[in-house]
Structure formats: C-alpha cells, structure tokens
Design brief:
alpha/beta; 5 helices; 162 residues
Length: 162
C-alpha cells in the first residue's frame, strides 16, 4: 500500500465526511493509475468503515474505457468515490456520463476533479462533489464549480469569489 502524503490527510478526512453525510455504506472506488490517485484510493479503502464493492483503476488513454466504466458503475453502490485528475479522467468521465446507472450526485471525488473545465470535458456532472486538498469542499452545480468550507463560509464559483 502506498503512503498518503501527510498534506492530503485533511482531503481524505473531508472525502470520508462527505461520504458519511451522503449515507454511503456500499461504495465503489475508482482511480487513475498515477501514484497520487492510487495512494488516495488506497487510503480511502483502508479508512472506510462500510463495504467497498469494487476498486477499479483506469489508464489515462484507452480505446473506450467501456470495461472500466461498466465495472465502476455497476453493482448498485450507495456512492462512488473517484481519485484522479481532470485531464486523466476526461475519457473515463465521458464514458461514465453515458452509463445510466452512474449518478454524479452520488459521487465524491478527491481534489483532482475540482476543475472548472471538467463539465466541458465530460458532459453533465451536476451534483459531483468532493474535497479540496486543504480540506474544503466543492461541487458542480448548473455547470459551475462551487467551493465551500474553510473559505470563511464564502462560496466561490469557478475559481472567482462570489
């Protein structure tokens, strides 16, 4: 098992808290194959008190990502958890958006997906939420990225103070 960088502990704590608040018991965990994403996914699996139904990894480049998307979206979990960065997840994300059983509003991600350009790369992901590397939280709503948490209760939209 890879070690999670000490600076990412707050991020993991926020992902776990968001998952608990969403009532997740059964989760599917997916991650990119880079060391940072793999370590985050492994740390989540080790810390999650519920049941992990599947752990699925995907490459940044693939012919279609269909096999990985079907496996990740399948099994009727309560939640999906993603550890990847926006550029590497774009292809997998487009495939997931096309899977009828996957719900972005039941998906929690690590900081790598907190990119205002993500909806343009993958499609409608309203409801997708996650943790910032500083322990803050974010979500996509009406196509925009909104931050909350440690920013003194002030929300930001697509990186701008609002």
């Amino acid at each position: 098992m890879r070690t999670l960088h000490p600076g990412r502990v707050m991020e993991l704590d926020t992902v776990l808290a968001l998952a608990r608040r969403r009532g997740g018991g059964l989760v599917n965990v997916g991650h990119g194959r880079d060391p940072r994403s793999t370590a985050a996914a492994e740390a989540f699996v080790a810390a999650w008190p519920g049941t992990v139904c599947a752990v699925v990894s995907w490459p940044p480049e693939a012919a279609s990502w269909l096999r990985q998307a079907c496996r990740f979206a399948g099994g009727s979990p309560d939640l999906w958890v993603i550890a990847d960065d926006a550029a590497s997840w774009a292809g997998m994300g487009r495939r997931l958006v096309a899977q009828p059983q996957w719900r972005p509003g039941r998906t929690i991600a690590f900081s790598g997906l907190a990119d205002p350009a993500l909806p343009g790369l993958v499609g409608d992901i309203d409801g997708l939420s996650g943790a910032g590397s500083d322990g803050s939280s974010w979500s996509f709503f009406d196509g925009g990225l909104r931050w909350s948490g440690i920013h003194s209760g002030v929300s930001t939209v697509e990186g701008r103070w609002s």
